[in-house]
Amino acid sequence: MTMCRRVRRDAVAEGAGPPGARVRRARRAGIAAGAVLVAGLAVATPSSGHVIAIDVGHSIASQGAISARGVAEFEFNRALALVVEQTLAAAGYRPFLIGADGRTEDLVSRPRRAGEARAGLFVSVHHDSAKARFQRDWIHDGRPRKYLDDRFRGFSIFVSRNNVQWPLALRCASAIGARMIAGGFRASRYHADPVLGSGREFADEANGVHFYDNLAVLRHAPMPALLFEAGVIVNRDEELALGRAETRAGIARALGEGMGDCGFRT
Ligand SMILES: [Zn+2]
Q: The pTM is what?
């Protein structure tokens, strides 16, 4: 995927200006006009859409939550982010993936790279857990694991009022949450609960959106930014659902449609 994106960016840089001028420049440079036209066609669709930063939460060194069956959150995040990238590209957006190689350790460089890529929207992709004291023991494949019961399930979306463009971030979060619910997904309740969660204030209760003002990755973003928890991988049933291709496709579709609803037209 990395190589494809690099090729596309190069093509964009080379393809600047009207098509006629591109061909003339290419002829002067001794490059076959056909090749340039192919490159021009290849960039025509993505260059018409907004750049959307898709941030893969966590890294190889710091993998986030561990699922009920022992899979690292980073793996779930990356798998979903790649589907989101494909879905957005197919819809005419220009997705810009951050952290997919698992080597991005700090949080501040993520929104900075999104800014450098001129992303109009920043979406950090995560999968959820809950407090350790609610996690119970079970054995999976002969190994001791932790799981959460059905009080802990569903997607959650977070926005920060310290993000310079939080009103638009909230509008997008609400739109994405609404599309998730329309797609058959359920919003979590437990983050708002003072015992089960952290008493996190709802920003849009109906659509599963909360305020989380001090999230670094949102605070430092120069564009509207939101953090998307796709679901709870420590919940055994939800982990299985979140690992299915059709679930990832449905989530990616909801994200793309929600972005369209809040003004990021392709
Ligand atoms: Zn996470």
A: 0.82
State the distance from the centre of ligand 1 to the C-alpha of 228, rounded, in angstroms: 9
249 CB-near residues (< 8 Å, 6+ apart): 83, 87
**Burial of 20: CB neighbours in 10 Å, binned 0-12, 13-18, 19+:** exposed
Q: How far is CA 39 from CA 10, 14, 44, in A?
A: 9, 9, 9
Comparing CA positions, the residue from 118, 144, 148 lying closest to residue 133 is 148
Ligand 1 centroid – CA 214 distance (Å): 15
Mean pLDDT of 258-265: 93
Residues 6+ apart with CB under 8 A from 194: none
Distance (angstroms) between ligand 1 centre and the Cα of 17 equals 41
Residue 218's contacts (CB-CB under 8 Å, 6 or more residues apart) are 111, 122, 124, 158, 159, 160, 162, 163, 169, 212, 225, 226, 227
Q: How many angstroms separate the alpha carbon of residue 127 from the centre of ligand 1?
A: 5
Ligand 1 (ion): residues with CB under 5 Å are 57, 64, 126
Sign, CA dihedral 208-209-213-218, equals positive
- State the distance from the centre of ligand 1 to the C-alpha of 50, rounded, in angstroms: 25
- Structure tokens that stand for 93 in this block: 């957006």
pLDDT score recorded for residue 265 = 80
236-258 confidence digits (pLDDT tens):
999 999 999 999 999 999 999 99
Say how many residues make up the chain.
266
Question: Beta partners for 226?
Answer: 123
